[in-house]
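User: Predict the full complex structure for these chains.
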Amino acid sequence: MISVNRYKCGYCGACVSVCPVGAIELIETWIEIADTCNECGACARICPIGAIEVLA
Amino acid sequence: MRDKYDIIVVGAGPAGSITAKTAAMRGCNVLMIEKRQEIGDPVRCAEGVAKLRIKKYIEPDERWIAAEVMGSRIFAPDGTGVELSEDVSGSEVGYVLERKLFDRALADAAALAGAEVQVKTRATGLIMEDGYVKGITAMHLGCEEVEIRSDIVIGADGIESKIGRWAGIDTTLKPSCVNTCAQFLVADIDIAQDRCEFHLGSAVAPSGYLWVFPKGNRCANVGIGVGGNTCNPGKRPIDLLQDFVRTRYPDGKIIELVVGGEPASGPIERTVANGLMLVGDAARQVDPLTGGGIANAMDAGSIAGDVAADAISEGDVSEARLQEYDAGWRDEFGKRLDRSLAVKDRFVTLTDDDLNKLAHSVEGLDFATMDLFGLLVTLIKKNPKSLWSLRKMFV
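Assistant: Here is the predicted structure of the two-chain assembly.
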């Protein structure tokens, strides 16, 4: 499962661009992750501020 | 808001606003939507731009010029500096902008040209009919989703673009093709206000660089961008940036945080589909070496607006017709992106020692009349072995 720390997130959209299944969307000041997420972790890797984690 | 326009532009950054303005001036009915409630905010940019390239589209206004720079200085890991002067040093020096005001000025110009602008309005999907994009579904001010039709949809929706993907254009970036960045606006520091600085090296910014761009009044944008594949816990841009600022500017006051990703993939295969075009970061039109995207976005927007107006007046918005835009922007700056990508790909494999050697090889040379291209040519000539793979593109 992907966990987004909304207190850390700078809503920059970098994670959206690397999602191979297009599961992430940047709304205004938060990101939403759809059920199609395959937990590859690309978003967690790219985040400039460390707001995303893949939880086992 | 009506239910039908000639053109819908999704995203009100520089690419979207120039597209909207150009098409509106050509007599098209244009709707430009911005998902955020404020245009230009939050900033996700180091704000440097070449004067010459933006003057084509907007009269310079001191309200959105934070600083004017005369050149830039690039520092190797051991501190060896190479200085480049103005007009000739890459496209990333000239003005340091106040993007919040600059983007608003561009959106304002689009509105004055006749485009309808709607904020807090988010595209949620595309209307597809017979293989053509026929408009968008959108949420306006958080109300129920509505359908808005158009002959052409233009995706100017930034790094997080969805418009291209919805139309079947794969804009997904590999982590190595994104520079992930963090920047502080640091106040009350002693820095040269007339030039930009770039620092290279694994200590400050592994496979990327650190920049210091003056913003006037003893302030500067101090930022770091690193390749997404080298971004690891504890060494993320925010961590590297905090370390650098703490050491370099212990008395500086941090008055703003900016985070963002910049596409560093180089040109993507396709930027048009039936009834659809992509511009700016959405089309990955950012220079992969310098990270500069504003001027390219504006050039692309201007071409896109013209092609859209022509295509609509001819009643043909097929991918084949819109190909004129794709060919047009590649003709304008596509080669530069290819070249920058090749340089970036080579440079990220260089060690600190390699970078120092390169800097030493040009130490003492006069670059007062040389631009980034000229510097690279000189580096390749002086270091044929280590930069062998680049010679064909430059020499």
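The CA atoms of residues 37 and 120 of chain B lie 4 Å apart.
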